[in-house]
Design a protein that fits this description.
about 40 residues, mainly beta, about 50% strand, two-stranded antiparallel sheet, 2 strands
């Protein structure tokens, strides 16, 4: 896998302390939408 990939994760909050990943996949291009979490 090359370095020019985007990891998209769809996550659902159940409570403030709990949630789960619905799906995750890689994209070659920057996804549309807002980035909620970014790597430092």
């Amino acid at each position: 896998m090359g370095k020019d990939k985007w990891l998209v994760v769809v996550y659902r909050d159940i409570t403030k302390a709990d949630g789960f990943v619905i799906t995750a996949y890689f994209l070659d291009k920057k996804p549309k939408g807002e980035a909620i979490w970014q790597r430092d």
